[in-house]
């Protein structure tokens, strides 16, 4: 045992400069990720600023019970699941499809142009995207002006509950699918090109090569990305929804993150309850990532860990 320990210390010493490069990352993780986790204790307390965190009264699971008896909180949970699973169905495949479409295009220059065009929106903030949408989709926006000029009736796109979620998915795809496609394109470049040559000799069509070689070759990447997406279900896109929602569509737009923002900053704050909601989200995400990992392994034989 002592020899093993000495061997480990020797290996660390040999790689001391590499560990030194990692030191800022470890410090960042400790300061901004691990030390703040001490604040989780607020979820089990009736926090009073005058008493401080440790001096406030312990209330056990009362804050968590409140989540399930508060109609607004339950509505936010329902909206969070609905929006997130909608994103999985509508948004997740688009990065894969775009990556395949770009890699199947002839000519390196054309591929680079399209990749740049699709990646650019990722670097725009949701504040900017929301302003663009308002200019296009408001009552006096460009699309409604065109509809009115053609003799049609104006449509209040941004205040229509039935259109709000489709607009969420469309704008999110426009903004992020190019960025997510980068991962799949990198995975595709790692596929042995002789497999395509052999398939061509056997008379395989392009679609068959995509199905049997390309998708099969990036199956493990798709599995990992899907598991990560499922593990992020309770984070339904605060930045986007916060900047795009309004009072008219709040019934279908209010997710847990925006709900916590409202009860914390637009009312009498209850930090214990807000922390309980955040911890509840994290626990659900943890459970979902475990379930997704096991399910994907059962279906495809691929898994992220374990």
How would you describe the overall organization of this protein?
The chain has 306 residues and is mainly alpha-helical. It folds into 2 domains: 1-60, no CATH class; 70-300, MetI-like fold (Orthogonal Bundle). The chain is 72% helix and 1% strand. A two-stranded antiparallel ribbon has the order 1-2. Helix 6 (92-103) packs across helix 10, helix 7 packs antiparallel against helix 10 (161-189) and helix 13 (219-230) runs antiparallel to helix 17 (271-300). It is globular and about 75 Å long. The mean pLDDT is 87.
CATH class of the largest domain, anyone?
Mainly Alpha
Kindly report the average pLDDT value: 87
Quaternary organisation: single chain
Helix vs. strand class? mainly alpha
Helix content: over 70%
What is the molecular shape? Answer: globular
Distance between the termini: 26 Å
- Total helical elements: 17
Say which CATH homologous superfamily of the largest domain is assigned.
MetI-like
What do we call the CATH topology of the largest domain?
A: MetI-like fold
Helix/strand order: HHEHEHHHHHHHHHHHHHH
Strand order of the largest sheet: 1-2
Give the number of DSSP strands.
2
Beta content comes to under 5%
Q: Quick recap of the structure?
A:
By secondary structure, this protein is mostly helical. It has 17 helices and two strands.
List the helices and strands and how they pair.
Elements: H1 2-14, H2 16-34, E1 45-46, H3 52-55, E2 57-58, H4 62-69, H5 71-90, H6 92-103, H7 108-119, H8 126-137, H9 142-149, H10 161-189, H11 193-201, H12 206-217, H13 219-230, H14 238-244, H15 250-253, H16 256-265, H17 271-300
Antiparallel strand pairs: 1-2
Helix pairs in contact: 4-17, 6-10, 7-10, 13-17, 16-17
